[in-house]
Design goal:
mainly alpha; proton-transporting ATP synthase activity, rotational mechanism; CF(0); membrane
Length: 184
């Protein structure tokens, strides 16, 4: 390693008049070297750098334009989605309101039909009670009539003798003949 640094150090001792060599004075050579390198880079690299920057600028503009288009489409889709959401919410509210009104209507119909059924049952009960009362009254009448008839027959049989009995039968037969003659 020492021989490599010695060779660079020995280059500084070469005479500079009329010959080509390296200037090892860093402060004097850096601005000159930098200006030469920059000049060469600017001269030859200007077109390449300009093309690179133009390509990069075009890609950035294309990306911005694509992003703007995507943003526009996204906003459009968002508005469509919001419109659909509003529509669905309105339909849901309408279904909810219709559902509640349908429930209320069914509730009223059920209550009304229950009241009608109760009225019919009450009417049926009252008719059944009246029918049973009428039947009981008819049975009592029939029994009273039978008892009265038996009492009357008993009274007649005890009061009537054969002769009175024959006269009553003859009178009734005479009345029946006179009624028959009137109808003929």
């Amino acid at each position: 390693m020492k021989t490599v640094t010695d060779s660079f150090v020995s280059l500084g001792y070469w005479p500079s008049a009329g010959s080509f060599g390296f200037n090892t004075d860093i402060l004097a050579t850096n601005p000159i070297n930098l200006s030469v390198v920059l000049g060469v880079l600017i001269f030859f690299g200007k077109g390449v750098l300009s093309d690179l920057l133009d390509n990069r600028k075009q890609r950035i503009l294309n990306t911005i334009q694509n992003s703007a288009e995507l943003r526009g489409r996204a906003i459009e889709q968002l508005e469509k989605a919001r419109a659909r959401l509003r529509k669905v919410e309105m339909e849901a509210d309408q279904f909810r309101v219709n559902g509640y009104s349908e429930i209320e209507r069914e509730k009223r119909n059920l209550i009304n039909s229950t009241y009608k059924a109760l009225e019919q049952f009450e009417n049926y009960k009252n008719e059944t009670i009246r029918f049973e009362q009428q039947r009981a009254i008819n049975q009592v009448r029939q029994r009273v009539f039978q008892q009265a008839l038996q009492a009357a027959l008993g009274t007649l049989n005890s009061c009537l003798n054969n002769e009175l009995h024959l006269r009553t039968i003859s009178a009734n037969i005479g009345m029946l003949r006179s009624m028959k003659e009137i109808t003929d």
